Amino acid sequence: MKMWHVLNRSTYTMQVRHILELYEQGSRNFAGVDLSQADLRGVILIGVNLQGANLKGANLTRAFLIKSDLSGAQMNWANLNFTKMSEATLVDTELTKANLNGAFLVKSKLAGVKLSGANLSGANLRCANLRGANLCGAQLERVNLRDADLSNANCKWANLSEARLIGAKLDHCSLGFVNLSRAWLKGLDIAGFDLEGVNFHRAKLSGANLEGTNLPCANLSEAQLDRVNLKRANLRGANLTEASLEGANLTKANLIRADLTGAHLKGAKLDDAKVEDMSKTTTLPELMDYSLYSAAV
After folding, report:
1. Which side of the chain, N or C, has fewer Cβ within a 10 Å radius?
2. Cα distance between residue 161 and residue 78, in whole Å
3. Is 75 in contact with 96 (CB distance < 8 Å)?
4. What angle is formed at CA 156 by the lines to CA 150 and CA 157, rounded to 5 degrees?
5. What is the pTM of this model?
6. CA nearest 78: which of 56, 104, 102, 51?
7. Per-residue pLDDT of the chain in tens (297 residues, 90 and over written 9)
8. Cα torsion for 85, 88, 92, 97, to the nearest 10°?
């Protein structure tokens, strides 16, 4: 078995050298190549065709794959640590449990990509197309998703703490039980979303549209919610302690059993809101300068 591994590694080493030689000679078509477990650290393969390639477990740390086509490639468990892949095409690519820590994927096409359980911590995906991508359970701490398209993507259980999502498109994106603590979400439109179990602790949501969202028992403690539209939102049992809700619209919102201890509500609208039930369990700060017209207090 050990001898087989030695021969296998030697074969891939020769194959990598051959591909790099062909690349230097001007070849760009390497579709379907089998380079699983290959050592491709630091290689420069700009603008190449690697459609359907087998790169399972390959080490592509700090490689340059700018404008390359990896559509349909098998890259499960591949190491793409700090790999440069801007404007690359990874449509329907298999990257389950791959390591893309610090990867540069600005303006890349990743529609339908499979990234469940993958590590994308610190990756730059600004303006990337992730329509229909599977990011379930992915590690996305500090990821840059500014102006990215996440329409119809599955982000359930993903860790997006400190992520930047300003300007991102999230139409029909699944966000259940996502960790968005300390995330940048200013001005984001997620009206009507089911956000059950989402962690918004210290998230920056100023000016965002959350009208009609489902946020039962959500953690919004210390979140920046100034001027946020929470009209008709379900915040039953939510944790809003120390949250900043100045100028927020909470008209007809369900705040039964919610905890607003220490919350800043100057100029907030609570017209027709439900902020207390028979058990008297909702915790409110001192009510001053708030609009409570017809509120169920």
Report:
1. N
2. 24
3. no
4. 130
5. 0.89
6. 56
7. 332 333 345 556 768 999 999 999 999 999 999 999 999 999 999 999 999 999 999 999 999 999 999 999 999 999 999 999 999 999 999 999 999 999 999 999 999 999 999 999 999 999 999 999 999 999 999 999 999 999 999 999 999 999 999 999 999 999 999 999 999 999 999 999 999 999 999 999 999 999 999 999 999 999 999 999 999 999 999 999 999 999 999 999 999 999 999 999 999 999 999 987 534 455 555 444 444 333 333
8. 0
CA distance 223 to 235: 14
CA–CA distance, 219 with 237 (Å, rounded to integer): 9
- Is 145 buried (19+), middle (13-18) or exposed (0-12) by CB count in 10 A? buried
Give the residue carrying structure tokens 């602790």: 201
10 Å Cβ neighbour count for 246? 18
In sequence order, what are the residues at sequence separation of 6 or more whose Cβ sits closer than 8 angstroms to the Cβ of residue 117? 96, 97, 136, 137, 138
Query: Whose structure tokens read 């959350």?
Result: 210
Q: Tokens for 284?
A: 């409110």
Two structure tokens written together for 93? 């690519």
